[in-house]
């Protein structure tokens, strides 16, 4: 069942005959639709303060993890003075806009993986595609130390920052991979090797599908962190997702403490191998989306 804001929708599993296009049409219909409606977003209730910001997810971390988050933020703001890593300049805003947003996708990842992919979500292999400043990958690695996290980034300066911050924090469960997603997706050492792929603020869904799904094993999931209203973007991506061997499993409205409002986690389940011709040559997915 898809839970989103004040609505509940039937999830499109890989074996469901209903097309994603039909699903999106239902998404916009009234209560007279065959789909029932209710309210139950992913959320948390407790709160804690970090320089004036209230964050229950941050509070759920242990003292060592909180210290690692602080070290990450300090490094991010320091390096941001020399290169463009983030538009935000204050610690509280980094927590509000980036850390909290990254932590919010952990519950959808765990829930979806346990329901459809495997008996445990404690030792996942995860790739953060287009990691940039390490969001969400570094935060996921801190919060879930049992996960093996690969930060995939193609820009050298950003990789230098990622390597620095991983060493500074002491994250033994993280590797930085300096490569384009299109090339890594054709590398036999990495192709279809990850349980989970995530992407945040990288590209639209039909491009992300070709970047991320070739890296996910059959039976794994791809999670895209998006804004509050991704319906049209998801509909445009239907063909690309299917070509990569996957289908929409769930679209979760994720409760956000940020002034930027509600966020959405789009979760795709990979049901069969990606055809060998995907991903296409570097640059092609962005220039000629499927």
TrEMBL record:
Transferase recorded as keyword: yes
CDD domains named among the record's database cross-references: AdoMet_MTases
Alphabetic keyword roster: Cytoplasm, rRNA processing, Transferase
Cross-referenced Pfam families: GidB (PF02527)
Source domain of life: Eukaryota
UniProt KW Transferase keyword: yes
UniProt-listed InterPro entries: rRNA_ssu_MeTfrase_G, SAM-dependent_MTases_sf
NCBIfam families associated with the record: rsmG_gidB (TIGR00138)
PANTHER family noted in UniProt: S-ADENOSYL-L-METHIONINE-DEPENDENT METHYLTRANSFERASES SUPERFAMILY PROTEIN
Name of the protein: Ribosomal RNA small subunit methyltransferase G
Organism: Datura stramonium (Jimsonweed)
